[in-house]
Amino acid sequence: MLPNRIFFTGVPGSRWSGIAQILEQIPGMNTTDRNPDREYTHNTYSGHKGSYFGRGMIPIELTPDAIDSAWEDPTAGCKIVKSHEWADWWDQPEFNQHFKDDWKMLVYRPDHIAHGWWHEAGGFNIAYPNYSEYKTSANIMAEITRYNALLLEFSMLNKCRWEFFTPDWITENFGYRIDVPVVHPDVLVTLIKT
């Protein structure tokens, strides 16, 4: 059974958005946060769809009402709540108070590979979400390095097992089989079912 929310994170360039879009094909997922203003298409790649929280994006407020307000119908199923910044918030008392029954999903891709892919996907020209708050490529690289370190530390403390994002992984963790067009050998995922 799906939770109300999955707090979903990965660094810029980790291919996390494409993974989220694959998971949103599972019956019971809520995609009512999608609209034309919340979309970015990059050539033939998945691009960005739906709500993104954090700096220059939807401000993070740790209440269910504030988070859920990004969805047109917050009761329409499990919401994938995307932010590069969740690792800064998971140890906040408010987070654990309000979202203790929700899941956390982490996507890892090595720093330099993620940084390069973020630039290839549009970099500061990405129309949605807005990355202008980061100001420079060096700042993006520093944040990628910092957040990847936090994700690895968080996964270690929670005894997580990192795996490739495959149809078998989806079936094992979500009980539903979905095709994964490409399994990237430099992308790993883990899921914490609180």
The helix content is 25-40%
Q: Which term fits the overall shape?
A: globular
Can you tell me the number of structural domains? Answer: 1
Structural class: alpha/beta
What is the tally of helical segments?
6
Characterization of this structure:
Helix content is 30%, strand content 18%. With 194 residues, the chain is of the alpha/beta class. The protein has one domain. The strands form two sheets. The protein has a six-stranded mixed beta sheet, with helices on both faces. Strands 2-3 form a two-stranded antiparallel sheet. α4 packs across α5. It starts with a strand and ends with a strand.
Short description:
This protein has six helices and eight strands. It is of the alpha/beta class and 194 residues long. It has one domain.
Spell out the blueprint of helices and strands.
Blueprint: E1 5-10, H1 16-23, E2 39-42, E3 45-49, E4 52-53, H2 64-68, E5 79-83, H3 93-98, E6 103-108, H4 111-120, H5 137-157, E7 163-164, H6 167-174, E8 188-192
Parallel strand pairs: 1-5, 1-6, 4-5
Antiparallel strand pairs: 2-3, 6-8, 7-8
